[in-house]
Amino acid sequence: MFASTLSVAGRNGVLRVLLLEPSVEDAARVRALLSNQPEFRVAVARSLRQARELLADGTFDVALVEASLWATEGANLLEVMRRHRSDIAIVVMTSGENEREALPALKLGAHDFVSKRNLDAGQLGARILVAVEESRSMRRRDTMTRWLEREARTDHLTGFYNRRAFDQRLHEVCSAARASCTPVALVLANVVGTREVNEAHGYEVGDMLIRRAARGIARCVRASDFVARVGGDDFGIIIAEGNLDLGRRIARRIAHEIERLNVEEWADQVPVSIVFGVASGVAPDADELFFAAEQQITSQYGHRPDVTYLPLPEEPDGPSVA
């Protein structure tokens, strides 16, 4: 059993065990069972305070916890352990064979339980190894799930969020704004001339144009703003609690930064040109807000340049969906 499961041990082939047991006799017995096995290194805590001190000073792979402690201090025990080692495996030790004694701990996230009655070294070691493997497998699954969720919400050309994430966020922000009667501003940015660049220079150059536009936008938004690529050459910036003036200021900041980059860093490349639509409203509807910003961009179709810089006009102010 041990030979097939030693892969769960640490880098030095050792699992560090925190034994939380108020009883001196039981602690000595359990420690003796594990100390004869080279896979385990055991530290004993008689109280939650001692356990907190040991966790703060060292890293543990598994905690063996007396079940009675969970009845009064289970939530505090879990909080302390997760704070110091989020993937620590927890095995509860009961005084008898009845698993009801372990239910409070299992409901809070313990991985297994063992009975201290007729406990032997082989059984205890095997249950510890299985609990550690289960804990690490759950952590790997959680990590993979978070990675897949992030991948599903990311535009891989720019690194921004994608349209799916944008739509979800816009509806969430607008819903919260309706509940608190606060404003939301939306900036849509359309990169001009991508079709012509693709036809004249190829899609690689067109993709580079989009990436350079994204770089300019990223330098101008705030950490609290939500930025996404919402179409082939379109970007959206959601500004929670932002009014029309703030939306325009952020759009102008982007326009000025793009102009600077075209002159200084991108002088030998196809220039990036962007037009903007800015809309805002107090407690707005998400779809109406997006439509208002989109209509402002559409109104500029007749006089957009091919691939030259277009500053955001000071007037008219643009739509507001109050």
Biggest beta sheet summary: 5 strands, parallel
- Strand segment count: 9
**Mean residue pLDDT:** 82
Strand-and-helix sequence, N→C? HEHEHEHEHEHHEHHEEHEH
Which percent range describes the beta-strand content? 15-25%
Assembly category: single chain
The CATH class of the largest domain, by name, is Alpha Beta
Distance between the termini: 68 Å
Estimate nothing, just give the exact number of structural domains: 2
Structural class from helices and strands? alpha/beta
- Identify the overall geometry: elongated
Strand order of the largest sheet: 2-1-3-4-5
Report on this model:
There is one protein chain. By secondary structure, this protein is an alpha/beta fold. It folds into 2 domains: 150 residues, Response regulator (Rossmann fold, 3-Layer(aba) Sandwich), CATH 3.40.50.2300; 141 residues, Alpha-Beta Plaits (2-Layer Sandwich), CATH 3.30.70.270. Helices cover 49% and strands 17% of the residues. The strands form 2 sheets. The protein has a 5-stranded parallel β-sheet. Strand 7 and strand 8 form a beta hairpin. Helix 3 packs parallel to helix 4.
